[in-house]
Structure formats: C-alpha cells, structure tokens
Design a protein that fits this description.
310 residues, mainly alpha, MetI-like fold
Length: 310
C-alpha cells in the first residue's frame, strides 16, 4: 500500500518577508535609524497633517473642533488664494519656458570648441550652487529704487527718466522676481542640455551634412528631436518647482505689493504662521499636492509615450 506524503504547504508572502528579515537582521539594524527618522518626520507628519486638515486647528485657541470638509470648501471661496493660484501660474509661464530656452542656447554655445570652455561652464553654473536666499538678497539690492545698479545704469544710458520701483510697483514686481528666478535656475537646464548634446551620436550630424542639411536644419531635425526627453524632463520638473516657489517671494517682496506676488506656498505660510490657521493651511497644502500630482501623472504618461528619460 502506497504511503502518500502530504504536500508541503507553501509559505505565504508575509512568511517569506519575515524569514528574510530574520536572515538579514543586521542590515535592518543599520538602516533602522533612517527608517525611524523617515517614519517620524515624513509618514507620521503626513498622516497628522491630513488629520489637521479636517479640524479648525488654531494654535492660540484651546478648542480644535472637527469641521469635516469645511476647510476644503473654504478653498473654493477664498479670493486671496485664487489670486495666489493665478500669481503662481503667472510665475510658471513666465519662468519655465524662457529658462529652458535660455539653458539650451547657453548649452549650444558652451558645447562649441571655444577657448577656456571649462572656465565659462563653471561661471555659468555658479548661480546653481549659490544659496537662493543669498541670490534673492543680492537681486533685491540690484532692484533698489534709490541706489540699485539697474536704475543707475538705465538712468545713465537715458533709457528711463526716473528711478523705477521694481519690487514696489504692482506691474513690475512679479516680472522682476521672474527675471531673477530665470537667472538663478538656468544653470541646471544648461548642464542637462550639455549632457544631452554630448550624448547625440556624431554620425547623425554627418549623415545630415551628406544629405545637404544646413546648420538650422541639423538643429531642427537632429538636435531638437534627440533632446526631446531632456526638454520633457526639464519642463515637468520646472513646473513642479515653480508651483512651490517661496524663497524669492519671502525675501524680496513679502507677497506684495497688494498681493501681486503672493504665491500658493507663500499663502500657505501666511495661513499657518501668521494667522495660525493650521487646519486650513494643511488643506491648502493638500490642494497644492493634488496639483503637483497631476503634473507628475502627466510626466509618467508622456514618458510612457515618448520613451525613456535622460
């Protein structure tokens, strides 16, 4: 009589993870400080912020009642926040495309066999490694209406008849911040474009020359398509960054004049640390997260359609 041996029951996925953890316990000991910090300052902070968004959480008041979706409904009727959204998109449109185009032009120039090319590349990259607070203070001095360099040279060249109040004029404040942001951010685009240009096979340019393509045609039909993943990456990252612009607004304008430079993140800062409405501020933060998530999903979809990134 044959004896049947019962089949060994397969381990569950949780069991396999527990077994691997026991085998590699020393590795988990070494990464545990990082895991604790991540759990405390990221996961717990995120969950607690989500909890706050459903409460009228004022730092001064002792009572912190549950208000449900009221904070999120208030966002739809907050005219100041709507103005901040428009200002943020104004900043995005004014800074991201010009920064990408200027970065490409500088990269094309620095990719040529010019003298002291390494030195020029270093000089153009310096703004990227300079703290943005320092850059903002420096440009605030340039924009000063009494003794700023911009007014001094424009008056000397007879371009203007009287000093301009760059950061106090409601029509000039945001363009002034945009100009400074382009100057400070173009170096990153330049470096990525340089890497992309050096990765283009030389055979493509040689084949285009054989077919009679001129310099403009080689740029249009070889360089631009080959740099498409880099451009897509810079566009999406630039948009996500511009949605979170804060430093230059805080240092240079303080959101003024008359809220013309108040962006979404700066408005969140005011709600939380000036008016102490932590519940409403966290609701605004999750609204901003939703906007950033939309652009991230757009990035993934475009990457899936047009191929790998940089």
């Amino acid at each position: 009589m044959a004896i049947t041996v019962p089949a060994k029951r397969p381990r569950s996925r949780a069991g396999n993870i527990a077994r691997d953890a026991r085998k590699n316990w020393s590795a988990y000991v070494f990464i545990s400080p990082g895991l604790v910090l991540f759990g405390l300052f990221t996961l717990f902070a995120l969950v607690f912020a989500f909890y706050l968004s459903f409460h009228e959480w004022n730092v001064i008041n002792k009572d912190k009642p549950f208000v449900g979706l009221e904070n999120y409904r208030d966002i739809l009727h907050d005219e100041k926040f709507q103005r901040a959204v428009l200002n943020t998109f104004y900043f995005t449109v004014g800074s991201v495309p010009p920064g990408i185009i200027l970065g490409l032009l500088i990269a094309l120039m620095l990719n040529q066999p010019i003298r002291f090319r390494g030195l020029w590349r270093t000089l153009y990259y310096l703004p990227a490694i300079t703290p943005f607070v320092v850059v903002s203070i420096l440009w605030k001095w340039f924009y000063n209406g009494d003794y700023g360099l911009f007014n001094y040279y424009l008056l000397k060249a007879h371009v203007i008849d009287e000093p301009l109040l760059w950061l106090a004029d409601k029509n000039l404040a945001m363009p002034s911040v945009i100009l400074m942001s382009i100057w400070g951010g173009v170096a990153g685009a330049m470096v990525l474009y340089l890497a992309g240009l050096q990765a283009i096979p030389e055979e493509l340019y040689e084949a285009a020359k054989v077919d009679g393509a001129g310099a403009w045609q080689r740029f249009r039909y070889v360089t631009v398509p080959q740099l498409a993943p880099t451009t897509l990456f810079l566009l999406v990252i630039g948009i996500i960054y511009s949605l979170q612009v804060f430093t230059q607004i805080f240092v240079m304008t303080g959101g003024g004049p008359v809220d013309r430079t108040t962006t979404m993140v700066y408005y969140i800062y005011l709600s939380a640390f000036k008016f102490y409405e932590m519940g409403y501020a966290t609701a605004l933060a999750f609204f901003l997260f939703a906007i950033a998530l939309v652009f991230t999903l757009m990035q993934l979809r475009l990457y899936r359609r047009y191929g790998a990134g940089i």
